[in-house]
Design a protein that fits this description.
The complex is a heterodimer of chains A (114) and B (114). Chain A is mainly β. Chain A has no helices and 11 strands. Chain B is built from no helices and 12 strands. Classes of the chains: A mainly beta (114), B mainly beta (114).
Chain lengths: 114, 114
């Protein structure tokens, strides 16, 4: 299996622009997670889906952030408008089952907002 | 709510020496506990996890961890480190009541002295 695929790997944009991050989970996995990693706040769960349905979005920082999962093989995290404080590494992870089941992480998208 | 503390930000050990990385958690009941490793520029990879049963858990790459309820700890150990073990290590805790929401510690960076 190719593992979790994220694109782009790097994104540089200017403040105010819309940013869309993409994730393809491992085939057959029914849970998908979006995380953000910064030096200041560490690794934070933003939102997770089960069977394409958002279950917990309490970690989404504000309305500028939105996430969708239109089908079992694709998810997006969108930031509109972007701000410099959104600069971080964004990880997508997937798992077969929730709870104690292993989450498999993608390589991450490094976002820099100027 | 659950939380996890990794008191050591950075540890350096000599190649071949033993290793212990500390992790303390806060949770009212028996949690799910995890150790993940992150190599530079990579996503996180699960080393091992505990959810019930034997309190000494074996993982990949020769790592093990011991759940000590009385100390609220889940320390990671390896008897002899290799240069390839240099990475960031994250302890994480999940609550059985909110199955898939995992809280990560701030991480411990491990450097290996030749």
């Amino acid at each position: 299996d190719a593992g979790v695929i994220q694109s782009p790997r790097h994104e540089v944009t200017e403040m105010g622009q819309e940013v869309t991050l993409r994730c393809k989970p491992i085939s057959g996995h029914d849970y998908l997670f979006w995380y953000r990693q910064t030096m200041m706040r560490g690794l934070e769960l933003l939102i997770y889906f089960n069977n394409n349905v958002p279950i917990d979005d309490s970690g989404m920082p504000e309305d500028r952030f939105s996430a969708k999962m239109p089908n079992a093989s694709f998810s997006t995290l969108k930031i509109q408008p972007s701000e410099p404080r959104d600069s971080a590494v964004y990880f997508c992870a997937s798992s077969l089952g929730g709870g104690v089941e292993t989450q498999y992480f993608g390589p991450g998208t490094r976002l820099l907002v100027l | 709510a659950q939380s996890v503390t990794q008191p050591d930000i950075h540890i350096t050990v000599s190649e071949g020496a033993s290793l212990e990385l500390r992790c303390n958690y806060s949770y009212g009941a028996t949690p799910y506990l995890f150790w993940y490793v992150q190599s530079p520029g990579q996503g996180l990879q699960l080393l091992l996890k505990y959810f019930s049963g034997d309190t000494l858990v074996q993982g990949i790459k020769g790592f093990e961890a011991e759940f000590k309820r009385s100390q609220s700890s889940f320390n990671l150990r390896k008897p002899s480190v290799h240069w390839s073990d240099a990475a960031e290590y994250f302890c994480a805790v999940g609550a059985r009541s909110s199955a898939s929401k995992i809280i990560f510690g701030s991480g411990t960076r491990l450097s290996i002295r030749p």
